Amino acid sequence: MSESENENNIGQFTLPETESSLFHRKKKFIFIIVATLIVITIAITVSVIFTKKAKPTISPTTITIDTSATETTTILTTSTDSYLTTMNEWSPTLSVIKRYEFKNSDFQSMVTVDVNEDNHADIVIGDERQSRILIFLNSANNQFNDEIIYETDIIMSSLFKADMNNDNKIDLIGISGGPNAAINFLYNTGNETFYRRKVIKRDPRIKNIELVDINQDNYTDIVIVYSNKPDVYIIFNMANEDFSNQTKYEMKYMINHFKVLNINDNQRFNLIVAHEDQNVSILFGNYNQSFIDEVNYSTKSLVHTILLNDIDSDDNMDIIIGNYNFNFQIVFGETSDKFYQSVVYSVGLYNTFLRIGDLNNDQRLDIILGDYATKKISLYFNVGNRTFINSTIYSTNFNLENAQLVDINNDGYMEIILIGTDSIISFIEILSIYS
Ligand SMILES: *[C@@H]1O[C@H](CO)[C@@H](O)[C@H](O)[C@H]1NC(C)=O
Ligand SMILES: *[C@@H]1O[C@H](CO)[C@@H](O)[C@H](O)[C@H]1NC(C)=O
Ligand SMILES: *[C@@H]1O[C@H](CO)[C@@H](O)[C@H](O)[C@H]1NC(C)=O
Ligand SMILES: *[C@@H]1O[C@H](CO)[C@@H](O)[C@H](O)[C@H]1NC(C)=O
Ligand SMILES: *[C@@H]1O[C@H](CO)[C@@H](O)[C@H](O)[C@H]1NC(C)=O
Ligand SMILES: *[C@@H]1O[C@H](CO)[C@@H](O)[C@H](O)[C@H]1NC(C)=O
Ligand SMILES: *[C@@H]1O[C@H](CO)[C@@H](O)[C@H](O)[C@H]1NC(C)=O
Ligand SMILES: *[C@@H]1O[C@H](CO)[C@@H](O)[C@H](O)[C@H]1NC(C)=O
């Protein structure tokens, strides 16, 4: 298609050298001692400096399930009753283990990825103010090196990660919307360098992408939706960092968010779609670049997040939906890939993003909701049986844009990394969860 054009090797940059992992091993005992002291010191400091912070209050009751909104596409009678839990032994305290401030920036998007393959998750942030991404290398002990600034000629409104060229190194992918829409690939050499390649889409405005192997050739393809036209488009990864022209899957309506689900056959896949008018549909794919079936679910407001994971540990993929209202919603996959049941969970927080992760190491995926305006996150612990308890609400002092859940200090527990802004200052705040 004439609207597609490639530009190679737009830029290159080098990461500074970091300490070797051998050094880390040799100093392991000292690090543990130092880490303990640092954590204690920080904990004391933080409790002095930040007066409000975590108020862990385990509610003895479960989240109210709005059964009036429960829909099902099946005759399966899955219980949506709530039940009392025995979670009293888990009373988490959230404490700030690290906080960074940056002037003249606007942190919006974030991925965590082990950029330099030292087994420590690094933080990569997209800056909406200055057309650049910032890479913070994790040097262990909750310490991050000074940011590596990688200038881009375009503001990347969303960051993604995937191994795009099958060299077993995670690459970074940034999309920029607006009239200068482009997909930017930052290929990780593992040599502490990246090289950049840009796929320009001149005309359409990229709204969202998904990185997934559509045609089962073991290369990650790109699925795109645009904000100025309906339909879903696929750009196939042709290997050698080359991409196909886009293939169109016809749709009747504009898409807000989406995820690709259940890829069983070459080019036949299901799609989870959040409409611009708020509802969510599961579309069942056909071989001829169309969808043959569709099931609609009502949501309480416009959707901000769709995630796929097995929340109830029954080996079926579930659809986790975050929307800008006082609830989150899970469409549970049942025994076959055509059966789903939707459950709406009412919560006490208006929210603008949703993340999942096993926060308390009980092998169940928990949920956090965050809100931009009220500067709060709230934690919901999965206690099995499709039931969550509402737990801690944590307040910070900046507008929250995004969060990631990752074990940043290799202590076996996930930390919560928050980013956001307060006028022209941006923040990274790393929270630890201790029982
Ligand atoms: C993509 O489309 C352009 C213009 O239609 C065409 O010249 C080119 O060969 C196509 N590329 C591939 C890989 O199909
Ligand atoms: C590794 O880094 C060196 C020095 O920056 C550079 O010359 C070389 O091309 C890099 N190798 C790869 C595979 O990128
Ligand atoms: C993709 O990877 C799988 C698992 O390694 C392998 O069985 C399959 O043959 C690969 N497919 C292609 C097209 O290379
Ligand atoms: C795909 O196949 C379905 C069912 O056979 C048919 O209804 C539909 O029109 C076809 N779509 C396209 C784009 O060929
Ligand atoms: C699902 O919702 C979409 C968008 O509102 C609508 O176009 C479509 O007809 C609905 N499908 C069904 C099966 O109700
Ligand atoms: C879609 O959303 C509208 C409100 O925007 C609601 O009235 C309607 O019932 C929903 N349709 C479905 C099929 O969920
Ligand atoms: C838990 O429920 C109570 C009562 O409905 C509510 O006040 C509180 O805000 C909720 N907490 C969270 C984290 O949603
Ligand atoms: C889950 O729910 C079922 C039926 O309501 C009940 O029999 C079972 O004990 C519950 N499991 C747990 C772990 O609470």
TrEMBL record:
Signal peptide annotation: none
Name of one Pfam family that matches: FG-GAP_3
Keyword annotations of the record: Membrane, Signal, Transmembrane, Transmembrane helix
Chain segments annotated as transmembrane: 29-50
SUPFAM superfamilies the record matches: Integrin alpha N-terminal domain
Name of the molecule in the record: VCBS repeat-containing protein
Organism in which the protein naturally occurs: Adineta steineri
